[in-house]
TrEMBL record:
This is Glutamate-1-semialdehyde 2,1-aminomutase. One of its GO terms (biological process) is protoporphyrinogen IX biosynthetic process. It is an enzyme of class 5 (isomerase). Its EC number is 5.4.3.8. The gene is hemL. Pathway: Porphyrin-containing compound metabolism; protoporphyrin-IX biosynthesis; 5-aminolevulinate from L-glutamyl-tRNA(Glu): step 2/2.
Length: 430
């Protein structure tokens, strides 16, 4: 495959856009660098780049594009929204409709608010939890990603009872002192942290099914224990469902697992590919938010008419019969194909899959927390990623990300992908 036009564009981008990209992972940092592919067009499960190469897409824009690119129902909704004027700064009926769809799908959302990104959604849930409890500290789990607001860019301290260190320049030590990070799926570490900061913990923040060190499910009972212990300590529980909501079923991971948080952050899929975030939860907690309460959150773009209408259209597609069953069926075929190819060519790979989302890790037997994912081979993943790209398969450029199936992928796409995996494994990952 030839990427000369992408190379040219990347060089030009670097002269005007910091680092040539508007989000760091697009610069292929996770796979040792290289020229990112500049896409020109997407349709269904496929992408075409500026050099005319075609790819099967499993990046799905890091999650939102669950119906495939340019789904006609969503495209129509966006066109209609554009024709009606894109922004009003007033309420619209569509917001009511969409909020109604979300609250119906996820009963823990007694009230919601729309914002513009997952980052904003999570950031605000933390503010609301602090307002409600009058406490400051947050406990989160290592490797879970919650956007780029200050509080969640804090790395683990040296033990469960120590506060964290800034994970980014520009995040102050004072802020890091408000955050405790413990390993996912480690209830003892969580309990120790909570015991230590009993009266200070405003909220526990967790991806109920992790999407940010690959797809990692909670061990049986883990989330239930987190809920019980947190509530006993007077802390709220926030689920970051920015990746997971409407990914595995029509509803959230909380529906799938039968565990309810106090507050939930949403994003990605619910915008049908347009910018969106939302947060919500128990009515008495949400009543902390302005104009009813003292916690402030606002936005010129909040409830953006085009995003809302795209989101409604996306959920309408996802509500159709059999949509999730098919993504699960194809996901299973893909998982089996990868596992069989790995066995055939003695590639040390393990696949974590839930329905239509999966992650392939190399040189590790099992991944249940961030440390395991970190211990998996970065080098082998980088080789795998680059060889798959050459064969027309577009994966997320990091061993910590997931492959996402969409409603547009066909069994033939999956067969072609497995064929590519076989070829790459036959060549080896050294
Ligand atoms: N939470 C989770 C779980 C995410 O995966 C992400 C983005 N990958 C965010 C929050 C932040 O969302 P956004 O990029 O829309 O700000």
């Amino acid at each position: 495959m030839n990427f000369s036009n992408s190379e040219k564009l990347y060089e030009e981008a670097g002269k005007v856009i910091l680092g040539g990209v508007n989000s760091p992972s697009r610069a292929y940092k996770g796979v040792g660098g290289g020229t990112p592919v500049f896409m020109k067009k997407g349709k269904g499960a496929y992408f075409w780049d500026v050099d005319g190469n075609q790819f099967i897409d499993y990046l799905a824009a890091y999650g939102p594009i669950i119906t495939g690119h340019a789904h006609p129902h969503i495209t129509k909704a966006i066109q209609e929204a554009a024709a009606d004027g894109v922004l009003y700064g007033t309420p619209t009926e569509h917001e009511n409709v969409f909020a109604g769809m979300l609250t119906e799908a996820m009963p823990a959302l007694e009230r919601v608010r729309f914002v513009n990104s997952g980052t904003e959604a999570v950031m605000t849930t933390i503010r609301v939890a602090r307002a409600y409890t009058g406490r400051n500290k947050i406990i989160k789990f290592a490797g879970c990603y919650h956007g780029h607001s200050d509080l969640v860019l804090v790395a683990a301290g040296s033990g469960p009872s120590t506060t964290g260190n800034p994970d980014s320049a520009g995040v102050t030590k004072n802020i890091a002192e408000e955050v405790i990070t413990v390993p996912f799926n480690d209830i003892d570490a969580f309990k120790e942290a909570l015991d230590h900061f009993q009266d200070e913990t405003a909220a526990v923040l967790v991806e109920p099914i992790v999407g940010n060190f690959g797809i990692v499910e909670p061990e049986p009972g883990f989330l239930e224990s987190v809920n019980d212990l947190a509530h006993a300590a007077g802390s709220l529980v926030i689920y970051d469902e920015v990746i997971t909501a409407f990914r595995f079923m029509y509803g959230g991971a909380q529906n799938l697992l039968g565990v309810e948080p106090d507050l939930t952050a949403l994003g990605k899929i619910i915008g049908g590919g347009l910018p969106i975030g939302a947060y919500g939860g128990r009515k008495d907690i949400m009543e902390q938010v302005s104009p009813l309460g003292p916690a402030y959150q606002a936005g010129t773009m909040a409830g953006n008419p085009a995003s809302i209408r795209a989101g409604i259209a996306c959920l309408e597609v996802l509500k159709e019969d059999g949509v999730y069953e098919e993504m699960d069926r194809l996901g299973r075929i893909l998982e089996n194909g990868i596992v069989e190819a790995a066995e055939k060519y003695s590639i040390p790979a393990v696949v974590n899959r839930l329905h239509g989302a999966l992650t392939v890790y190399f040189d590790i037997e099992k991944v249940t927390n961030f440390q395991d994912a970190e211990n998996s081979s970065t080098g082998k993943f980088a080789v795998f990623f680059k060889k798959m790209l050459q064969k027309g398969i577009n994966l997320a450029p990091s061993k910590f990300e997931a492959w996402f199936l969409t409603t547009a992928h066909t069994e033939e796409d999956i067969r072609q992908t497995i064929q590519a995996v076989e070829e790459v494994f036959a060549e080896g990952l050294e």
